[in-house]
Amino acid sequence: MMDNANELTHFDQQGASRMVDVGNKQATCRVAVAQGIVQMQPATLQKISANDFKKGNVFEVARLAGIMATKRTADLIPLCHLLPLESTKIEIEAVQPDQVKIIATVSVHAKTGIEMEALMAVSVASLTIYDMCKAIDRSMEIGPIHLLEKSGGRSGHYRRE
Length: 161
Description:
CATH topology: Alpha-Beta Plaits
Strand order of the largest sheet: 2-3-1-4-5
CATH architecture: 2-Layer Sandwich
CATH superfamily: Molybdopterin cofactor biosynthesis C (MoaC) domain
Order of helices and strands: EHHHEEHEE
Structural class: alpha+beta
Number of strands: 5
Number of domains: 1
Number of helices: 4
Protein backbone atom coordinates (compact mmCIF):
# COMPACT_ATOMS: atom_id res chain seq x y z
CA MET A 1 0.00 0.00 0.00
CA MET A 2 1.41 3.40 -1.01
CA ASP A 3 0.76 6.52 1.01
CA ASN A 4 1.46 8.95 -1.83
CA ALA A 5 0.59 6.93 -4.92
CA ASN A 6 0.67 10.00 -7.17
CA GLU A 7 4.08 11.21 -5.96
CA LEU A 8 6.82 8.96 -7.31
CA THR A 9 9.51 11.52 -6.62
CA HIS A 10 12.29 9.83 -8.58
CA PHE A 11 10.63 10.61 -11.93
CA ASP A 12 10.02 13.97 -13.59
CA GLN A 13 6.83 15.00 -15.47
CA GLN A 14 8.05 13.21 -18.60
CA GLY A 15 8.86 9.98 -16.72
CA ALA A 16 12.63 10.40 -16.76
CA SER A 17 14.63 9.21 -13.74
CA ARG A 18 16.02 11.89 -11.49
CA MET A 19 17.63 12.40 -8.12
CA VAL A 20 15.26 14.38 -5.92
CA ASP A 21 16.40 17.97 -5.33
CA VAL A 22 16.70 18.42 -1.57
CA GLY A 23 18.60 21.71 -1.78
CA ASN A 24 15.86 23.83 -0.21
CA LYS A 25 14.80 21.33 2.44
CA GLN A 26 15.49 21.76 6.14
CA ALA A 27 18.02 19.36 7.65
CA THR A 28 16.48 17.35 10.49
CA CYS A 29 17.48 14.45 12.70
CA ARG A 30 16.45 11.29 10.88
CA VAL A 31 16.41 7.74 12.18
CA ALA A 32 15.43 4.55 10.37
CA VAL A 33 15.07 1.02 11.73
CA ALA A 34 14.90 -2.02 9.44
CA GLN A 35 14.61 -5.71 10.14
CA GLY A 36 15.41 -8.90 8.29
CA ILE A 37 15.16 -12.62 8.97
CA VAL A 38 17.41 -15.43 7.79
CA GLN A 39 15.72 -18.83 7.98
CA MET A 40 18.04 -21.87 8.23
CA GLN A 41 18.30 -25.44 9.39
CA PRO A 42 18.38 -25.77 13.21
CA ALA A 43 21.82 -27.41 12.97
CA THR A 44 23.16 -24.34 11.14
CA LEU A 45 21.94 -22.01 13.87
CA GLN A 46 23.48 -24.30 16.50
CA LYS A 47 26.82 -24.16 14.71
CA ILE A 48 26.62 -20.34 14.47
CA SER A 49 25.71 -20.06 18.16
CA ALA A 50 28.67 -22.28 19.08
CA ASN A 51 30.97 -20.02 17.00
CA ASP A 52 32.10 -23.12 15.12
CA PHE A 53 33.00 -21.66 11.70
CA LYS A 54 36.49 -21.57 10.22
CA LYS A 55 35.65 -18.25 8.54
CA GLY A 56 35.15 -16.59 11.94
CA ASN A 57 32.30 -15.35 14.12
CA VAL A 58 29.34 -15.25 11.74
CA PHE A 59 27.40 -12.59 13.65
CA GLU A 60 30.37 -10.24 13.99
CA VAL A 61 31.35 -10.53 10.32
CA ALA A 62 27.69 -9.91 9.34
CA ARG A 63 27.52 -6.91 11.69
CA LEU A 64 30.64 -5.36 10.10
CA ALA A 65 29.32 -6.06 6.60
CA GLY A 66 26.04 -4.33 7.48
CA ILE A 67 27.83 -1.29 8.85
CA MET A 68 30.02 -1.09 5.76
CA ALA A 69 26.95 -1.42 3.54
CA THR A 70 25.32 1.69 5.03
CA LYS A 71 28.33 3.67 3.89
CA ARG A 72 28.02 2.36 0.31
CA THR A 73 24.27 2.73 -0.21
CA ALA A 74 24.56 5.73 -2.54
CA ASP A 75 27.04 3.75 -4.67
CA LEU A 76 24.60 0.87 -5.14
CA ILE A 77 21.12 2.41 -5.23
CA PRO A 78 21.18 4.74 -8.25
CA LEU A 79 19.09 7.69 -7.01
CA CYS A 80 20.09 7.74 -3.32
CA HIS A 81 21.85 10.77 -1.89
CA LEU A 82 25.25 10.36 -0.25
CA LEU A 83 24.60 10.95 3.46
CA PRO A 84 26.99 11.83 6.31
CA LEU A 85 25.99 8.97 8.63
CA GLU A 86 26.17 9.66 12.34
CA SER A 87 25.36 6.25 13.76
CA THR A 88 24.77 2.68 12.66
CA LYS A 89 23.82 -0.01 15.15
CA ILE A 90 23.19 -3.59 14.09
CA GLU A 91 21.68 -6.15 16.43
CA ILE A 92 21.82 -9.81 15.45
CA GLU A 93 19.92 -12.37 17.46
CA ALA A 94 19.52 -16.14 17.21
CA VAL A 95 15.82 -16.97 17.35
CA GLN A 96 15.56 -20.64 18.19
CA PRO A 97 15.26 -23.06 16.61
CA ASP A 98 16.04 -21.88 13.07
CA GLN A 99 16.12 -18.10 12.51
CA VAL A 100 18.45 -15.17 12.81
CA LYS A 101 16.88 -11.74 13.28
CA ILE A 102 18.82 -8.66 12.20
CA ILE A 103 17.79 -5.13 13.20
CA ALA A 104 19.65 -2.08 11.88
CA THR A 105 19.20 1.40 13.34
CA VAL A 106 20.79 4.23 11.37
CA SER A 107 20.77 7.96 12.09
CA VAL A 108 21.80 11.18 10.39
CA HIS A 109 21.12 14.91 10.51
CA ALA A 110 20.31 15.62 6.87
CA LYS A 111 17.83 16.90 4.27
CA THR A 112 16.66 13.45 3.14
CA GLY A 113 15.75 10.13 4.71
CA ILE A 114 17.94 7.25 5.71
CA GLU A 115 15.59 4.31 5.18
CA MET A 116 17.62 2.87 2.31
CA GLU A 117 20.77 2.77 4.46
CA ALA A 118 18.95 0.78 7.17
CA LEU A 119 17.48 -1.60 4.60
CA MET A 120 20.88 -1.98 2.92
CA ALA A 121 22.50 -2.83 6.28
CA VAL A 122 19.98 -5.61 6.95
CA SER A 123 20.21 -6.93 3.39
CA VAL A 124 23.99 -7.15 3.32
CA ALA A 125 24.21 -8.58 6.85
CA SER A 126 21.71 -11.26 5.76
CA LEU A 127 23.68 -12.03 2.61
CA THR A 128 26.87 -12.27 4.66
CA ILE A 129 25.29 -14.86 6.95
CA TYR A 130 24.23 -16.80 3.86
CA ASP A 131 27.72 -16.57 2.38
CA MET A 132 29.42 -17.75 5.55
CA CYS A 133 27.03 -20.68 6.06
CA LYS A 134 26.21 -21.80 2.52
CA ALA A 135 28.73 -24.64 2.59
CA ILE A 136 26.61 -26.47 5.16
CA ASP A 137 23.11 -25.09 4.40
CA ARG A 138 22.21 -24.04 0.87
CA SER A 139 18.50 -24.08 1.76
CA MET A 140 18.68 -20.87 3.81
CA GLU A 141 16.09 -18.20 3.00
CA ILE A 142 16.46 -14.47 3.41
CA GLY A 143 13.40 -12.40 4.23
CA PRO A 144 11.23 -10.75 4.88
CA ILE A 145 13.23 -7.54 4.99
CA HIS A 146 11.28 -4.40 5.81
CA LEU A 147 11.31 -0.97 7.38
CA LEU A 148 10.13 -1.04 11.00
CA GLU A 149 10.25 2.66 11.77
CA LYS A 150 11.46 6.01 10.52
CA SER A 151 11.39 9.50 11.96
CA GLY A 152 12.37 12.97 10.84
CA GLY A 153 11.62 14.98 7.79
CA ARG A 154 8.45 16.35 6.28
CA SER A 155 6.64 13.00 6.08
CA GLY A 156 6.93 12.61 9.84
CA HIS A 157 7.00 9.45 11.89
CA TYR A 158 6.23 5.99 10.49
CA ARG A 159 5.96 2.78 12.49
CA ARG A 160 5.12 -0.58 10.94
CA GLU A 161 2.14 -2.20 12.57
